[in-house]
Design goal:
There is one protein chain. The protein is mainly alpha-helical. Helices cover 72% and strands 4% of the residues. The chain is built from nine helices and three strands, in the order αααααβααββαα. The chain has helices at residues 2-17, 23-39, 41-46, 51-66, 69-78, 87-99, 110-133, 148-152, 159-189, and strands at residues 85-86, 135-137, 142-144. Strands 1-3-2 form a three-stranded antiparallel β-sheet. β2 and β3 (142-144) form a beta hairpin. α1 (2-17) packs antiparallel against α2 and α6 packs across α7 (110-133). The radius of gyration is 29 Å and the shape is rod-shaped.
Amino acid sequence: AVAAVVGTEAWFLHGYYAGSPEYEPAIAFIAALGVLLAKDPIRARLARPNAGQSRDLDLFQQFARALPFDPTIRVLRDYDMGDPIPRQAINLLYEFSDTWESVEKEFLDTELEKERKVLHTSARDLANEIARRTVPVGDQSHISVFSDQLRASNHGRPPHVIEDAKVLNTRAAEFVPKYEAFVRLCRKRLVL
């Protein structure tokens, strides 16, 4: 394509500088330039996204604000669920699981939407497990499977507390890779 542009440009300029420009070389040059630009990968990257992709990009940005890596995913990935965990981080998971099941939160890209549903179901299941197995502790800014009342008894962790922590650690470990895979897929499909 580049050779065609250079060749037609030379053909056009030969006639132009000779004092007798012709239309055929000019038309050929414009056509060759059009072909080059149509196939240019840089042009494709810079092209404005279509309306559907633009909407999906906006929705992904909403998703990133609703369920951010830090603090929510970092807590799920790095904390032992047997210890107190910041309630604020988990509140974002609760909010995501409550608000992202509506038609307004559906991606137009079918592959993204399919994976969003999988992620949302996993988030809802994890949020339900956390709500079922934890209680507020201390000044209520943290939650734990080990209540203040049990801590005060000084009898160590009962088996059900250890089991609750084990279940939550397993569920969190299953959820985090799904989150990361969804973010990577969005970046790939939306060319971020």
